[in-house]
Amino acid sequence: MRSLVAWSLLLGLVCTAGAADLPDAETILDRAIEATGGKAAHEKIHNRVSKGKMSMPAMGIEAQMTTYAAEPNKLFAEFESPALGSLLSGSMNDVHWEVTAMTGPRIKGGEEAAASRREADFDAALHWREYFETVETVGIDTVATMPCYKVHLVSKEGPEETRYYDMEENLLRKSEMTLVTEMGSIPIESYFTDYRTVDGIKMPFQSRQVIMGAQEMLFTTESVEHNVEIADETFAYPPDIEALLEKEGADGDE
Fold it and tell me: In this predicted model, what pLDDT tens digit does every residue of 50-63 receive, in sequence order?
């Protein structure tokens, strides 16, 4: 029934597109904050511990993941996989880093660091005006049969982004961006489903990423805890990252 109603609404909007204006992007983004609990509810949450799993079905790979996040901009994530080993990533003091078996330790720069800066901002959804130069509603599209407002966001720094917000519930259903990394430009599509309310905040418990139009990664959240005790050392830089930072500092002094 929901799908039939959604399609009827979409067709009606398309047929009257010349007569009706789309809502401005600022309104859509602010409605999304309300849809996920509202500003006051978000501001009651000061940290988060999430646990779940990541899988790459085409490769038969699974990993357990744990993410620690705290305001204003601390983040630490750990992935453990029998096939891939350990992957660590984090952000603190505007240093964004990762350690993997493939690349070793590295500190992110450029657009990649800018994207990580937004990700590490504990209340990034509330602070969208700080990150984007312009936002524009560019049309209507569907995501999994749901009619969505399509919003294009131009970053002050970092990659541009296109987001799709469900017209019925005002929830983010999809995002698209092309991230420039040391390995080249990587287009990423992300899909968000299974929204649940935890401590007054609505969040997706499942997401799917399609990388370069081919590689698919699935993320499933199994538990979320808010306002818990998180030791400061949780966000500390690993020794390999400390060494890189010291080297960069030494090089800068030359």
Answer: 999 999 988 889 99
